[in-house]
Amino acid sequence: DQAKDSQVKSTLDKYCVYCAELGSSIISNQAKLEEFVDSLIFIFHAYSDLPHSSKFITFFCDILQVAKKNPEVLDSTFGALTILFRSKGFFKKFLKMDGYTLVFTSFYMKFVSKNSQDQFNHLLFDNIPKDFSKLEPQEGLLELFVSSLGSSGKDSTGPDLLNSSNDIITPSAVLFICNFLTTFHRFDPNIFTKFDDMHGFLNLNNFLISNCQEIATSCYKKMLVESNGSQSVISNLFILYTREQTKPELRTSLLNLL
Predict the structure, then answer these.
(1) Is the separation of the CB atoms in 258 and 229 below 8 Å?
(2) In a designed cystine with 208, which of 102, 126, 185, 216 is the match (CB 3.0 to 4.6 A)?
(3) pTM as predicted
(4) Is-contact 121 172, C-beta < 8 A?
(5) Which of 34, 39, 40, 74 is nearest to 55 (CA)?
(6) What are the backbone dihedrals phi and psi of residue 74, each rounded to the nearest 5 degrees, phi first?
(7) Per-residue pLDDT for 229 more than 60?
(8) pLDDT tens for residues 241-254?
(9) What is the mean pLDDT of the chain?
């Protein structure tokens, strides 16, 4: 009830502005960072939104820079990042700065750690309120996805992609791509067709067959459900099913989706 008081709300508003300005300076201070994150989480739960969240975009970008060399910082700031991505002001700013491209190129096209990839897959997709994805189109990434899948499919010689140290994208990157398509299908109902026209599904199937057949069923299941049975998804699911290199156990699993 106190959170509804105008004086309390004004104080917390000012506190959030102050935090946004100084947050970057305490990223390396574990004790202060923990208190900082806890205070933001408390305020978010009081209002179901973080006041002045758009001002935290610099804090986020500075976390990314640190995380490229020290991905453990994502563990310390994960609570703050979770609420920032659930705050509409911050997410709108993130979209305008082409944030999905920034994260994909920084943590998926260049391998940092599997844990960081899993964390961003949660933060940018599972964690985002469904209506947020309607705020801004993100079409530019499709070509990047297609080229990444294509080059990795050609260059791959069967390394341990779950803990890759090279520039071949990983199964977590494939999950990012599938998550992106299903998320922004809510904004653009033709996104799967566009991806298909760019030979995206051809490259996706090639990559899945060569590197990670074990995730193929979950990828296609999510795309089928979220797209309400898109013809592009169904057609390429069938193509994957009929490919000679598809393992019998995957073929059986895919058959349950057809």
Answers:
(1) no
(2) 216
(3) 0.89
(4) yes
(5) 40
(6) -65, -30
(7) yes
(8) 999 999 999 999 99
(9) 89
Maximum mean pLDDT: which of 46-50, 81-85, 130-134 = 81-85
Nearest partner of 88 among 122, 44, 145, judged by Cα: 44
Distance CA 123, CA 75 (A): 12
Q: How many CB atoms lie within 10 A of CB 54?
A: 17
Reported as a pLDDT band with limits 50, 70 and 90, residue 165 is very low
Q: Which amino acid is at 146?
A: V
CA–CA dist 78, 174 (Å, integer): 22
Do the Cβ atoms of 141 and 100 come closer than 8 Å?
A: yes
Of 208, 218, 225, the residue nearest 254 (C-alpha): 218
Residues 138, 158: Cα–Cα separation, whole Å: 31
Q: DSSP assignment, residue 128?
A: S
Select, from the ranges 100-104, 129-133, 163-167, the one with the highest average predicted confidence (pLDDT). 100-104
Residue 179 tokens read as: 């998550």
Q: What is the pLDDT of residue 157?
A: 46
* Exposed/middle/buried for residue 12 (C-beta within 10 Å: 0-12, 13-18, 19+): buried
Residues 6+ apart with CB under 8 A from 64: 102, 103, 106
